[in-house]
Design a protein that fits this description.
The protein is built from 17 helices and 15 strands. The protein starts with 12 loop residues before the first strand and ends in a 6-residue tail after the last helix. The strands form five sheets. A five-stranded parallel sheet has the order 13-12-9-14-15, with helices on both faces. By secondary structure, the chain is of the alpha/beta class. The protein has two domains: 9-213, Spore Coat Polysaccharide Biosynthesis Protein SpsA, Chain A; 221-414, Rossmann fold (3-Layer(aba) Sandwich). α3 crosses α5 (133-142) and α13 runs parallel beside α17 (396-414). It has helices spanning 19-28, 47-55, 68-78, 96-109, 133-142, 146-150, 154-159, 182-195, 204-213, 256-268, 291-301, 318-331, 346-355, 357-362, 373-380, 382-394, 396-414; strands at 13-14, 17-18, 38-41, 60-63, 83-86, 113-115, 129-132, 162-164, 221-225, 230-232, 238-240, 273-277, 309-312, 336-341, 367-372. A hairpin with a 5-residue loop joins β10 (230-232) and β11.
Length: 420
């Protein structure tokens, strides 16, 4: 539970069930492994795992936190095991077929350690190791380094009689199906949302086939919508602005186009998530819902899953939104980010990122792209949007704001721009 990169990861939900539940279910489908035991630590941080195991009538053992080798040895000794299959709890797609095939391979090879990890041609997350109790005992008695004690099997691999198992071609590939950080979790959550039917287990071969046919799925990408303003519809409900709104707060126009554009990208890239910003109640409009909250509801109406929307509802100005959303992108480990705003707004946005050191540093290491909402919607539905956009850019609202945005971008580059 005390994972540095993703605390509590083994009890995070996938399709309504904890990760550990899925791992246990999948291991239980093995025909050759008789006992499924969760080996956790005695630390208070792992009490939740023990509680989960008791509640679900899962056998568990509690041992040393840092010396995991000692924990394994004590567990195996207590249960008088002759052969141990090691599966880590952060592998919610571990395959029972691979477990059984490796057990058979281990017995046939007459080695005292066998693994598919010695010849890695498969996705991370399908890792499986089988070793004898005799070798485990030797490792426990003779291992010296912290690495050997923490990771259980390095001593065995170095000193044991090893055999390398190669998984069948249908299991081969180089994706990440393991749970190590937030990006892994977002990806696995989408896999479970797509493939898990509520009973049985996911066929990992189907997942691998799907990933091969959709090579861009695991790019850890996000679309960022920069919030602008709100206006009321004819029924008095708040919505994002249109080009011709007269009561927009603040004076920002055409923001709904950003929402539609993001939904189009999401529809064609369902593995992406959408992050959006915009602080709480607008000045002079205390009864208004948050800007980010309004945009989220509009996205949901356009078919975006709530679980794929990240809301940052505290920032106000464009600079504040960029700073807050960059922080989210770093925390979520997004490698590619597309910033969506209106065409009139993007030059100032780009100037901020390129000229304000704080923003430039915040987005370091991220493949950043700026795409106008107008360009996206015209690409996907030109007949619907062409006349609306043309009329909008001829309106007094937009003509005035274009001049303001151009002046702002110029001041940023000159170093005279004043942040609100």
């Amino acid at each position: 539970m005390n994972s540095a990169r993703l605390p509590g990861k083994v009890l995070k939900p996938l399709a309504g069930k904890p990760v550990l539940w899925h791992v246990w279910q999948r291991c239980s489908r093995s025909r050759l492994a008789r006992n499924i035991i969760v080996a956790t630590s005695k630390e208070r941080s792992d009490d939740a795992i023990a509680t989960f195991c008791r509640k679900n009538k899962i056998s568990f053992f509690r041992g040393d936190l840092d010396n995991v080798l000692k924990r394994f040895y004590a567990c195996a000794a207590e249960h008088t095991l002759d052969v141990i299959v090691r599966i880590t709890a952060d592998c919610p797609l571990i395959d029972p077929f691979i477990i059984d095939e490796l057990i058979k391979f281990f017995k046939e090879s007459r080695a005292d350690y066998a693994s598919n990890c010695l010849r890695r041609v498969f996705p991370r997350g399908l890792d499986c190791e089988v070793f004898s109790f005799a070798l485990l005992r030797q490792a426990y008695q003779k291992a010296k380094s912290a690495r050997e004690k923490e990771h259980v099997t390095p001593y065995m691999i170095k000193h044991g009689d090893t055999a390398a198992y190669t998984v069948p071609k249908s299991y081969q590939g180089h994706w990440r199906l393991t749970l190590d950080d937030e990006a892994d979790y977002l990806f696995l959550r989408r896999i479970y949302d797509k493939f898990y039917g509520g009973s049985g287990i996911i066929d990992v071969k189907q997942v691998i086939k799907y990933l091969k046919n959709n090579p861009n799925l695991n790019q850890n990408s996000a679309v960022i919508i920069l919030g602008g303003g709100l206006a009321k519809d004819k029924n008095g409900r708040w919505r994002s602005t249109k080009y011709n709104d007269q009561n927009a707060r603040p004076k920002a126009y055409g923001d709904y186009l950003r929402v539609v554009a993001a939904s189009y990208l999401y529809r064609h890239n369902p593995n992406w998530v959408i992050a959006l910003g915009g602080h709480g109640h607008l000045k002079g409009a205390p009864q208004a819902v948050t800007l980010a909250g309004v945009i989220k509801q509009e996205l949901k109406k356009l078919g975006v899953k709530s679980s794929d929307i990240i809301v940052e509802g505290q920032s106000g100005s464009t600079f504040e939104q960029l700073r807050a959303l960059a922080r989210i992108a770093k925390n979520k480990n997004f490698k590619k980010v597309i910033i969506i705003s209106n065409a009139y707004h993007l030059p100032r946005v780009k100037a901020m990122v390129e000229n304000f050191k704080e923003l430039g540093k915040a987005f370091t290491g991220i493949n950043l792209n700026y795409v106008s909402a107008e360009k996206i919607v015209l690409k996907h539905q030109p007949k619907l949007w062409a006349k609306i956009i043309e009329a909008g850019y001829k309106s007094a609202n937009i003509e005035k704001i274009i001049k303001s945005e151009q002046q702002g971008a110029k001041q940023i580059k000159q170093g005279t721009y004043k942040l609100r």
